[in-house]
Amino acid sequence: MQNVAEHMSTKDYYRILEIKPSAGSQEIRKAYRALAQRFHPDKNAGNPLAQLRFQEIKEAYEVLCDKQKRDAWHYQHYNPLQKSAPTAYSADDILQQSIQLYKKYSNQDPFRLNQDTLFAQIKQLLSNDYIRILQLQGEIHTNSAVINNILQSTYLLPYEYVQPISALLKNITPVLPQTEEDIQSCLLEKKRQMLWNKYKIPLAILLAGVLITIMLLSK
């Protein structure tokens, strides 16, 4: 049984379904239906590779559509977190793991960063079990410090990753009032960045067109 689990952990189910780790349940189902239809054995008679692909797609869907299985697979698959962040038994353990995470990525080259791995490691820190530990021990300053370290670790991530992270961070209580504001401020800043990156080129083209029109009319 252990060998099977280790084998499953080596598969990248997100890559198999051609989605990102931030994908929600609807996106997972949509990707599964499209790929299952494409590689279904009935449509690929005599093609053993298609049949193997179909089985992998089915396996990936069965894991990712089940929250408990998905969380367990995250823990198995992302080995860097397992090595640097052992199982936590107290709020202080979680705090130390958040510090290690921040230190690891504070000087990271943004062009060499694996965003999917960072996102998965943050989600592991925000697992149901970890959040429950923080809630039960109720150490307001420790909770706020954990959130602060995670927020600082998200500076290299885009809005689509930070949005679900922020939702999980809000489940950690109690925290300082400023910490609640920091979560919202981080999310708003990432949203502004997303909108700017999305519309800066159209705006630049529009502005250039306006300037050219003004120049032509002034002649």
Automatic annotation (TrEMBL):
The chain crosses the membrane at residues 199-218. Keywords: Membrane, Transmembrane, Transmembrane helix. InterPro entries: DnaJ_domain, J_dom_sf. The keyword DNA damage does not apply. The keyword Transmembrane helix applies. CDD domains: DnaJ (cd06257). Pfam families: DnaJ (PF00226). PROSITE patterns: DNAJ_2. Residues 12-79 form the J domain. One of its GO terms (molecular function) is protein-folding chaperone binding. Gene3D superfamilies: DnaJ domain (1.10.287.110). GO terms for cellular component: cytoplasm. This is DnaJ domain-containing protein. It comes from Filimonas lacunae.
